Amino acid sequence: MKKRIFAAALVCAVLLAALSGCTIQIGGGSESAPASTQSQSPSQAAGGENASTSAPASVGQTADGITEDEAKGIALEHAKVKEEDLTGLRIRQERDDGADIYNVEFYVGNQEYDYEIRVSDGQILQADYDIEDDFYTSMTSAATYAEADARAAALARVPGAADQHIYMHLEQDNGRLIYEGKIVYQQMEYDFEIDAGTGDFISWEQESVFD
Q1: What percentage of the chain carries pLDDT values higher than 70?
Q2: pTM for the model
Q3: Angstrom distances, CA of residue 35 to CA of 21, 32, 41, 44, 53
Q4: Is the Cβ–Cβ distance between 193 and 203 less than 8 Å?
Q5: What are the structural domains, with CATH classification, of the chain?
C-alpha cells in the first residue's frame, strides 16, 4: 500500500515538473513579444531623422541696394538738374558710420552739388550746394564792362530807385557773359540783362508786382 502511495506521489511530482516546464516556455514566449516591439524603434527613429533632415532650412536674403546710376538719378532729381547740363560728375562708394553710401558730386557751371546717399535704400543723408568762387572770379575778370557801371545803367532807367532796390549777378549764357538783374520799386518789378562785354541791354521787362 505504501508503495502505491509513493508511486502516485512520484507520478504527481513528474506531472508537476512537466507542467512547470510548459509554464516557463509559455512565459518565455510571452516575453519575446516586447522584444519584437522594441525592434521597430530603430526604424521609427530613422524615419524621424529622415523627416527632420528633409525639412528645408530657412535662408535669409539681403538686398543688394541701389546702383551708382540710381544714386545719380536720385541726386539729379533732388537738385532739379538735367544730366545733359552737367559740366562734371564723380560718384564713389564709401563707408560712413557703419553704412555704405554713395558720394555723388556734380557741377553745373560754377555750381557744385555734393550728395551722400545710402546704398541700402537710396535715402539722401546729406546734400550740399556751393558756388565755386574761383570760377566766378575768372568770369568777373573776363567781363570788360564793370558791374558798378551795369548797376548804374539799370538804375538810370528807373527814376528814384537806389542800390537797395536792385539785385544783380554775373552769369554765363551759352558762352556769353551777362549781368542778369531785377529792380523792385514802387510796386513795379523790372527784369533786365546786360552784356558784360559791351554794356548793351539785351533785355528789359517791367510789370506790376501784383501781376
Answers
A1: 64
A2: 0.38
A3: 22, 5, 10, 15, 28
A4: yes
A5: 68-131 (3.10.450.40), 139-208 (3.10.450.40)
